[in-house]
C-alpha cells in the first residue's frame, strides 16, 4: 500500500539550490578559518553554524564564540599595551615626585606677590650728595661735587655746575636754550624758580619762503646761561668762572658718551651725516681711514663749546651775543638781525621767575610738602589732592599720637593679598580723581580752595571706600564726575611730550641746603624738522613755526621737598622725569610718596616696585613686572577690566601717539623717580668714662637711582 512519491521539479530545484548554498557556505567558512576540511571550525574549536538569509536570497554564516570574550588583540599587542601602561605610570610617578615641589614653589611665588627688586643699592652719605639723572657716568655729578668738596661752594653752585656740564655731556637732552624749574632751600627759607624757554621772532616773509609755512617762525633763545647767572647772584658762593671750569675741561678733553646718547646718535645716523654736517666730526671716530660713529663710553669733545664757555666765564651771559654768532644766524637763515635787537628782546623778556612754593600739610601739620609755585600750581594742587585722599584712606589706621616717621628697619609691613589689592584699588580710584582735578584746574573749572577743602576730601575718600567695600562693578559716571570731552581737551592732548626731562638733586647735609631742578629741551636734539646748527657754539637750536614765542615747558614736572616741621629739616626730595607728560610723572611721584610715607617702605623698595598709570578717559596700565596675583584680584574682585600691561601692543592704536614720534614701538615710555632721604640718627660717642658718654645727632643721607632710567650719585 505504500506509495512512492516522486520529487517535483520545484523540490528538485530547491534541493539543488540548497546544496549549492551549502557548498558556498562551506567554502566561505573554510576561507575564514583557514581550514578547508571543516566549514564550522575556528581557532578555538569546532562550533555549530547558524545560517541567516539575506534579502537577495543568499545566506551568510555568523560564527559566535560562546566560550571566550570577544577580542581583536594578539599576545604581542597585549605586551606592548602593558609596557606602555607601565611607562605611563612611571612618568606620572616621576612627575609627581619632582614636579610637585616645582608646582608648589610656583604657587607660593604667585601668592607671595613679590615685586621686582633691582640690583641697584641705596647710596649712603653723611655730608652731602649730588644726583644727576639720565647719564650713568660720573662727569656731571662730580662737577657738582667739586663745588662742595674743594671749593666751599653752596648747593646752588653745585647744581649750576652740573647743569652746565649736561649741556656738554648730554646735548641731545639739555642745551643752552633749555628751560628748567625747581626749588632751593637755603637758610631755612624755600623758593621756587621757573626758567621758561623763549623763542626770538624771525622775519615772517622770508621764513614763509624758506620753510613753506604760513605761520610766523621763531628761533629758540639761549636762556639757560642768563637764568643760571641770576640764580648764582642770589644763591651762589664761589666765583662765576669756577662754576664753568668742569664743563670747559670736559668740552676740551672729552666726556664719555652715555648709553642713551649713543642710541640717539646711531638711530639718527643718516640725519646726523646729512643735516648736521657742521658738527658731524664731533660724533665720528676715524680708525685707519675708516669712519664710524662713537659708541657708549667713548669720549665726545666739543672745542667750539669750550671756546664759548670760556667767553661766558669771562664776560658772563652777554658773551652769547657776539657779532660772529649774529652773522651766522643772518647767513644761515637769510635774516638781518642785529645785536641790539637780541639785547632788546632780552631786556623786555622775563627769563626767570622766583616765587614762593605751594605748600600743603600732612600728618596733622607735622609734615609740609613743597612743590610748584603760587603762580603755576595746577600740578601741585592735583598732587596735594591725591595725597590727602590717600592719607584719609590710610592714615586712620595710624595712631595720630605717634611719630609719623618710619624706622630704618621698617619695610613692607605684612599684608594679605586682599589687603594689597584693596590698597591698589584705592590708588587707581585716587589717580582717576586726580586726573579729573588736573583737567578741571587747567580748564579753570575748579580751584585750590574747593579741591583741598577737608570736607570735600572726606567725601571723596568715603565714596572710594564704600564703593570698594561693596565691590561695585557698574559705577555711575557721575561717581568720578568726568566729562570725556574735558579730559580729552585739557589733559590727553597735552600729555604728548616730545622731550625728555633730566633731574638734578643737591643736598648739603652740613648746612641743610637743598637745590632740586628739572630741565628739558622742548625738542630733543634730533626731533623736529627745522634746526639751526651753530658752528660758532657747536650747539643745535630749534626753529619753531608758530606764533608763540613764550611757550612754557608744560612737560617739565615740579620736584618735591618734604619738610619735617618739628626738626626743621628737609626730610625727603622727590623728582620725576620721563613719561608722556605731567599726569604720568605725577602718578609716579604719588605712588612713591604713598609707599614711603603711608606704607613705611624703604627708599629702595618704593622706587623699585612696579607702578600703575592712568590713560584718560578709561584705561589703566600696569608695568610688565607687576605681580600677577594683584592684577588678577583687581580684575576679578573689583571688575577692573580696563587694566592693561604697558607692553601690550594690542591697544597701540588707542594711545594716540604723536605723528612724528619715532618710538611707537614702545607703547608706554618709562618714567623715573629719583629721591634723597635725610634721616637724623643719634650716635653715642663712648669715652673712657662710660657715664660721660655723649649722644650726638648725625646725618644719614640716602640716595636712590630709578633702575628704569640711568643716573649717577656722587658725594661724601
UniProtKB/TrEMBL annotation:
Enumerate the GO terms in the molecular function aspect.
Answer: glutathione hydrolase activity; transferase activity
- Please give the residue ranges the record annotates as the region Disordered: 1-46
Q: Where is the composition biased (Low complexity)?
A: 8-42
User: One Pfam match, by short name?
Assistant: G_glu_transpept
Q: Name one GO cellular component term.
A: plasma membrane
Supply the name of the protein. Answer: Gamma-glutamyltransferase 5a-like protein
* Highest taxon listed in the record's lineage: Eukaryota
> Any transmembrane segments, and where?
78-100
The UniProt keywords, alphabetically, are: Membrane, Transferase, Transmembrane, Transmembrane helix
What InterPro entries has UniProt attached to this entry?
GGT_peptidase, Ntn_hydrolases_N
> Do you know which SUPFAM superfamilies this protein is assigned to?
N-terminal nucleophile aminohydrolases (Ntn hydrolases)
Q: Which GO terms describe its biological process?
A: glutathione catabolic process
Amino acid at each position: 500500500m505504500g506509495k512512492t512519491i516522486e520529487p517535483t521539479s520545484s523540490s528538485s530545484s530547491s534541493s539543488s539550490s540548497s546544496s549549492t548554498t551549502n557548498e558556498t557556505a562551506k567554502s566561505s567558512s573554510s576561507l575564514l578559518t583557514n581550514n578547508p576540511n571543516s566549514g564550522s571550525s575556528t581557532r578555538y574549536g569546532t562550533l555549530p553554524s547558524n545560517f541567516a538569509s539575506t534579502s537577495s536570497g543568499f545566506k551568510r554564516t555568523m560564527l559566535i564564540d560562546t566560550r571566550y570574550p570577544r577580542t581583536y588583540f594578539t599576545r604581542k599587542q597585549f605586551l606592548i599595551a602593558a609596557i606602555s601602561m607601565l611607562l605611563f605610570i612611571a612618568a606620572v610617578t616621576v612627575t609627581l615626585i619632582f614636579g610637585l615641589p616645582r608646582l608648589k614653589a610656583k604657587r607660593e611665588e604667585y601668592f607671595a606677590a613679590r615685586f621686582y627688586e633691582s640690583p641697584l643699592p641705596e647710596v649712603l652719605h653723611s655730608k652731602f650728595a649730588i644726583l644727576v639723572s639720565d647719564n650713568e657716568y660720573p662727569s656731571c655729578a662730580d662737577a657738582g661735587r667739586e663745588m662742595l668738596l674743594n671749593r666751599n661752594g653752596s648747593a646752588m653752585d653745585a647744581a649750576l655746575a652740573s647743569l652746565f656740564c649736561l649741556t656738554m655731556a648730554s646735548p641731545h637732552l639739555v642745551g643752552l636754550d633749555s628751560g628748567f624749574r625747581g626749588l632751593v632751600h637755603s637758610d631755612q627759607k624755600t623758593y621756587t624758580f621757573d626758567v621758561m624757554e623763549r623763542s626770538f621772532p624771525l622775519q615772517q616773509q622770508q621764513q614763509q619762503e624758506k620753510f613753506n609755512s604760513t605761520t610766523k617762525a621763531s628761533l629758540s633763545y639761549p636762556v639757560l646761561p642768563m637764568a643760571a647767572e641770576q640764580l648764582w647772584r642770589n644763591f651762589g658762593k664761589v666765583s662765576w668762572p669756577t662754576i664753568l671750569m668742569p664743563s670747559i675741561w670736559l668740552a676740551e678733553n672729552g666726556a664719555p658718551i652715555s648709553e642713551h646718547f649713543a642710541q640717539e646718535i646711531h638711530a639718527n645716523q643718516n640725519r646726523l651725516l646729512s643735516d648736521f654736517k657742521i658738527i658731524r666730526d664731533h660724533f665720528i671716530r676715524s680708525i685707519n681711514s675708516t669712519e664710524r660713529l662713537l659708541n657708549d663710553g667713548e669720549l665726545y669733545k666739543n672745542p667750539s663749546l669750550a671756546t664759548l664757555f670760556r667767553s661766558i666765564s669771562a664776560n658772563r651771559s652777554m658773551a652769547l651775543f657776539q657779532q660772529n654768532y649774529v652773522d651766522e644766524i643772518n647767513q644761515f637763515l637769510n635774516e638781518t638781525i642785529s645785536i641790539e635787537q637780541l639785547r632788546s628782546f632780552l631786556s623786555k623778556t622775563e627769563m626767570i621767575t622766583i616765587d614762593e612754593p605751594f605748600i600743603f600739610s600732612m600728618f596733622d601739620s607735622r609734615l609740609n610738602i613743597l612743590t610748584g609755585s603760587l603762580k603755576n600750581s595746577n600740578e601741585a594742587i592735583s598732587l596735594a589732592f591725591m595725597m590727602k585722599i590717600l592719607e584719609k584712606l590710610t592714615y586712620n589706621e595710624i595712631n595720630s599720637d605717634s611719630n609719623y616717621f618710619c624706622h630704618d628697619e621698617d619695610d613692607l609691613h605684612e599684608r594679605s593679598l586682599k589687603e594689597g589689592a584693596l590698597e591698589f584699588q584705592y590708588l587707581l580710584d585716587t589717580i582717576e580723581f586726580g586726573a579729573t582735578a588736573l583737567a578741571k584746574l587747567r580748564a579753570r573749572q575748579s580751584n585750590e580752595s574747593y579741591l583741598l577743602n577737608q570736607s570735600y576730601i572726606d567725601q571723596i575718600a568715603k565714596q572710594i571706600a564704600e564703593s570698594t567695600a561693596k565691590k561695585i562693578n557698574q559705577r555711575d559716571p557721575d561717581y568720578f564726575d568726568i566729562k570725556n570731552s574735558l579730559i580729552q581737551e585739557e589733559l590727553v592732548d597735552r600729555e604728548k611730550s616730545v622731550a625728555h626731562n633730566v633731574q638734578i638733586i643737591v643736598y648739603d647735609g652740613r648746612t641743610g641746603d637743598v637745590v632740586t631742578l628739572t630741565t628739558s629741551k622742548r625738542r630733543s636734539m634730533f626731533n623736529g624738522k627745522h634746526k639751526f646748527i651753530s658752528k660758532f657754539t657747536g650747539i643745535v637750536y630749534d626753529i619753531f613755526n608758530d606764533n608763540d614765542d613764550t611757550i612754557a615747558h608744560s612737560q617739565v614736572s615740579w620736584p618735591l621737598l618734604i619738610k619735617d616741621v618739628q626738626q626743621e629739616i628737609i626730610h625727603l626730595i622727590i623728582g620725576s622725569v620721563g613719561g608722556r607728560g605731567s599726569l604720568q610723572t605725577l602718578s609716579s611721584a604719588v605712588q612713591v610718596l604713598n609707599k614711603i610715607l603711608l606704607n613705611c617702605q624703604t627708599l629702595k623698595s618704593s622706587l623699585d616696585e612696579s607702578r600703575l598709570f592712568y590713560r584718560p578717559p578709561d584705561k589703566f596700565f600696569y608695568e610688565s613686572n607687576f605681580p600677577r596675583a594683584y592684577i588678577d584680584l583687581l580684575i576679578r574682585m573689583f571688575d577692573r577690566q580696563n587694566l592693561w600691561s604697558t607692553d601690550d601692543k594690542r591697544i597701540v592704536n588707542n594711545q594716540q601717539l604723536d605723528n612724528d614720534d619715532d618710538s611707537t614701538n614702545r607703547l608706554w615710555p618709562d618714567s623715573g623717580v629719583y629721591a634723597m632721604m635725610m634721616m637724623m640718627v643719634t650716635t653715642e660717642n663712648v669715652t673712657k668714662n662710660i657715664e660721660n658718654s655723649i649722644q650726638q645727632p648725625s646725618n644719614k643721607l640716602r640716595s636712590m637711582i630709578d633702575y628704569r632710567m640711568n643716573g649717577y650719585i656722587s658725594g661724601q
